[in-house]
Structures are given as C-alpha cells and as structure tokens.
C-alpha cells in the first residue's frame, strides 16, 4: 500500500494524491474529478464574472466617446492616428496565434503551444509599443488630453486598454513559462484556457474601440 492509499476498515482502498497546475494530478488544472472539477468550474465562473465587470467599465468609455462625438458632429479637429490600423493588425494577430496554440495543445502538440504562445507574447508587446508610438506622435503634434473635446477621451480609452493589456502580458508570460516547462497537456489546460479568455476579451474590446474611434471621424 503506497502513501497515496488509505485502506478502510471494510477492506476498500481510498486513492489519495493530488497535484496543482502542471502536475497532471487532481488540482484545478489537472485531470481529476469531484472537487477539482468543481474548482475548475468556479475559476471559469469567476473569470467570466471578471470579464463582464471589465466589459461594463471599458465599454462605458466607448459609449462616452461616441456620445461626445455625436454631440459634436461638426468638430473634426481631432483625428485618430493612422497607426491605429497597425495596432489593430497586431492585436488581432496575437489572438489568432493564441488560438493556434490552444488548438495545438488539444492535439497534444505541446511544442507548438510554446511557439504560438511566444508569438502571442511578442505581438502583444509590439501592440503596446505601437500604442506608445501613437501617443508620442500625438504629443509631438501638440495634441494633448485637453487640446480637443475628443482627444481627452481618446487618451483615456487607449491608456485604460493598454493597462489591461500590460496585465494580460504578465499573465501570458507566466503561462508561456509554464508551457516551456511542460506543465500543460490535453487534460491539463485550464491555465491556457482562462488566459486565452482574457486575451481574446482584450482583442474584442480593442476592435470595439477601433470601430468607434474610426466610425465617427
């Protein structure tokens, strides 16, 4: 009888043992049953609740911008920089790369998971860099938060989104590091799944922002 088995008085054997994420055991991201499955469902629920909360907050910024823009239809002084198109391509590409990585993991291709997660991380960093270039370009043109009626909301929207992207990159970095260490498998993929939900959410928010910013000008 091993240290992970407890023999009951009736002669039965209770199998113990557990593991946290990456052990392939019975932790939230393992392939266990019972409590571990409930923990995984709880983590998914909490993630979705968090995303709904973020959607309300970040979505309200887009609504405010749209409302202000419609109140000033004759005001075309502020124009979103064309570099926004580059930012959009980068973040959409990062989401596409993440999806490919997740698909690879489901197929047991862990090396491809590492490759695609690394690509997602790189594209996410390039997205943030492109945003810095957008702000720098506006400042060099003398466009500040108080210069035009809509420029202030533009800065607020893009900076708020960038802060959440920065947090997402931190999470993505942790997931990528664990992928390099072989912590994920077809049956141990919750960490990748939840990180992907957040990252795709940020991509969706950006697309909404992009449409709103471009459509009213």
Strand order of the largest sheet: 1-2
CATH topology: Four Helix Bundle (Hemerythrin (Met), subunit A)
What is the C-alpha radius of gyration, as a whole number of Å? Answer: 22 Å
Largest sheet: 2 strands, antiparallel
User: How much helix is in the residues?
Assistant: 55-70%
Identify the CATH architecture.
Up-down Bundle
**Helix/strand-derived class?**
mainly alpha
Number of helices: 5
Brief overview, please?
The chain is mainly alpha-helical. It has five helices and two strands; from the N terminus they run E-E-H-H-H-H-H. The protein has one domain: Cytochrome c oxidase, subunit III, four-helix bundle (Four Helix Bundle (Hemerythrin (Met), subunit A)).
Structural features, described:
By secondary structure, the protein is an all-alpha fold. It has a single domain, classed as Cytochrome c oxidase, subunit III, four-helix bundle (Four Helix Bundle (Hemerythrin (Met), subunit A), Up-down Bundle). Helices cover 68% and strands 3% of the residues. The chain contains five helices and two strands, in the order ββααααα. The chain has helices at residues 35-71, 83-106, 110-140, 151-180, 190-215, and strands at residues 5-7, 13-15. Strands 1-2 form a two-stranded antiparallel sheet. Strand 1 and strand 2 form a beta hairpin. Helix 2 packs antiparallel against helix 5 (190-215). The longest helix has 37 residues, at 35-71. The protein starts with a strand and ends with a helix. The relative contact order is 0.16.
């Amino acid at each position: 009888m091993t240290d992970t088995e407890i023999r009951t008085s009736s002669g039965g054997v209770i199998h113990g043992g557990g593991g946290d994420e990456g052990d392939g055991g019975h932790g939230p991201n393992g392939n266990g049953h019972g409590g571990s499955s409930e923990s995984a469902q709880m983590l998914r629920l909490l993630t979705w609740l968090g995303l709904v909360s973020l959607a309300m907050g970040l979505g309200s910024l887009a609504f405010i911008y749209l409302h202000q823009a419609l109140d000033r239809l004759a005001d075309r002084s502020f124009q979103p920089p064309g570099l926004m198109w580059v930012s959009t391509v980068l973040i959409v590409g990062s989401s596409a790369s993440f999806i490919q990585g997740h698909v690879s993991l489901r197929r047991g291709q862990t090396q491809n998971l590492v490759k695609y997660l690394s690509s997602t991380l790189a594209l996410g960093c390039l997205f943030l860099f492109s945003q810095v270039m957008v702000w720098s370009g506006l400042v060099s043109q003398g466009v500040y938060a108080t210069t035009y009626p809509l420029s202030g909301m533009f800065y607020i929207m893009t900076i708020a989104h960038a802060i959440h992207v920065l947090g997402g990159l931190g999470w993505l970095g942790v997931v990528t590091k664990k992928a390099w260490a072989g912590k994920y498998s077809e049956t141990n993929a919750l960490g990748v799944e939840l990180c992907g939900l957040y990252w795709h959410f940020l991509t969706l928010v950006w697309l909404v922002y992009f449409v709103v910013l471009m459509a009213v000008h």
